User: What shape does this take?
Amino acid sequence: METRREHDSLGEKDVPASAYYGIQTLRAMENFNAGGLPARPAFLEATVRIKKAAAIVHAELGLMAPEMSKAIVTACEEVLAGQWRDQFVVDIFQAGAGTSHNMNVNEVLANRAAELLGGKKGDYSLVHPNDHVNRSQSTNDVVPTAIRLAALTLHKELDGTLQRLSESFRGKSAEFSAVVKSGRTHLQDATPVTLGQEFSGYENCVAKHRDKIFEAADDLRFLGIGGSAVGTGLNTHPDYASRMVFHLSQITGFELEESANLFEAMQSLAPFSALSGALRNLALDMVRIANDFRLLSSGPMTGMAELRLPAVQPGSSIMPGKVNPVMAEMLDMACFQVIGNDTAVSYAVQAGQLELNVMMPLVAFDLCWTLEFFSKALDSFRARCVDGLKADELRCQSYAQRSLALVTALNPHIGYEKAALVAKEVLNSGRSVSDVVLEKGWLSEADLKRIMDLKGMTKPGLTDRSA
Assistant: This one.
């Protein structure tokens, strides 16, 4: 393998001649190989956008020659278009704060910019990773800014996913509005509901989580770029921070603002914990909803079987004809991973000291990964499960008619104690509620017919609608 000789403050090393990364990335590759997981694409792209904005700002301020700025910007645009992605090789578990990730990006862009100016890789006299690509920057303000931009980008996709899921639940709520079924509390018989009412709860749940996730993501618009190493802005032009926020807004399409306090923006990773926590809270409710699907579709001969889930694949390698609730099972597993990632993010967020939290690489990876796979899992669940749901109306009606909790409707008419006696006798004898009440002479047949109207029990008020 052909190599080129590079040096840094620790000495010299041979770097593959074809590599766009340099010696500092090579050291990181040698030091950090625990995970085999490079930066998530959205985080990498956010870092590159910061480098692009910085090159533009420095040219505007007269701190960088226009031709160098243009070369760096072009190199950034190539990466953003998908080129040179195999050159970003630093593992997630790396030097604290993300210095190795930052230098990997600096070196790739510097070497590509040098080529564009007619030079060769490793000729840092043309474009230097630290002096030019990283000018006015520190890992300490670049990385938290990149996490913010990456999360904002990924949130847009998740927000669309949640809107579609909420709309699908709303559609099913309307479709199932006339399907009366037995409610269940403690997994025991409860008073009747409609299947549509159950789905209206799912729809409202997702809509509320969408709002809360949006609120958490919106806090990420406030950037600490320009804080430099510790928040003081050392080695930056007085107009650098404001111009960076302006150009990053132009590049990303987000309405970004300067943080009111650059020290706090560097010290605290609380906004990332808030977004991760909002995603965890959604995951907790989606586990509940997915498990409802599994229960309501159980059977089909020996379970509830009130819902018919789309058959998307054979369910067993040994039992012919078996179909499992695989999309709900998939979603459960994805949700468990969301919860695990949030735990890791929470530990990382509390681990800062003084001017910096050095655990940012883990936060960047887990938060971006969660936003990526959770959005895809939810969208798959919607498209391949929710949208194709059917109700077994006869099964739902049968359970509703046999529910022991129907005696609840008798409370206003014969009292709780007599209704409890009816329930006990129904359970022991297998007879209907109406038969038992008529035998005891506590109500007339006409009154019972009005009181025991199943659809009436799904609405507020007394069950005797004639009263």
